[in-house]
């Protein structure tokens, strides 16, 4: 059910990319379900380990290299629903997908980063 929700939502956001990602999500869901049925104990242990390492890596990357907490702490929906699609879009952009959209996305990201930097600077000024 989650794969259908994610895929459908991604198709609404960006029809071509979402249509490409939707069958991938369905295939991974079917594959993970079959692994869970045939070998539940090791599959669940591996899935938990991958999730744990991924979350730790995300927190490490954001805190150490960006100097801020991950979006998970600000907006759960953005972190769990939009971030995976953003990563997929970044991969497509690297492959040359819709350069005009890439420019618009990069401009919007830069604008948001400037807002965050201004907000951080004002917090630092107020605390001093």
Describe this structure as you would to a colleague:
The chain is mainly α and 128 residues long. The chain has one domain (2-97). It contains 5 helices and no strands.
* Class of secondary structure makeup: mainly alpha
Order of H and E elements: HHHHH
Number of helices: 5
- The rounded distance between the terminal residues' Cα atoms is 50 Å
Shape: flat
Secondary structure: elements and pairs:
Elements (H helix, E strand, L loop, with lengths): L1 H12 L1 H24 L1 H27 L9 H19 L4 H29 L1
Condensed summary:
This is Bgt-2884. The protein has 128 residues and is an all-alpha fold.
Features:
128 residues, 5 helices, flat, 87% helix
């Amino acid at each position: 059910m989650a794969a259908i929700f994610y895929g459908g939502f991604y198709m609404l956001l960006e029809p071509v990319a979402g249509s490409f990602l939707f069958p991938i999500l369905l295939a991974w869901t079917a594959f993970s379900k079959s692994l869970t049925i045939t070998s539940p104990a090791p599959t669940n242990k591996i899935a938990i380990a991958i999730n744990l390492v991924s979350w730790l890596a995300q927190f490490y990357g954001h805190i150490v290299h960006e100097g801020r907490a991950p979006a998970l702490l600000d907006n759960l929906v953005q972190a769990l629903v939009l971030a995976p699609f953003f990563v997929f879009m970044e991969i497509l952009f690297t492959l040359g997908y819709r350069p005009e959209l890439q420019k618009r996305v990069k401009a919007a990201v830069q604008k948001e980063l400037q807002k965050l930097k201004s907000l951080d600077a004002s917090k630092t000024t107020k605390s001093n």
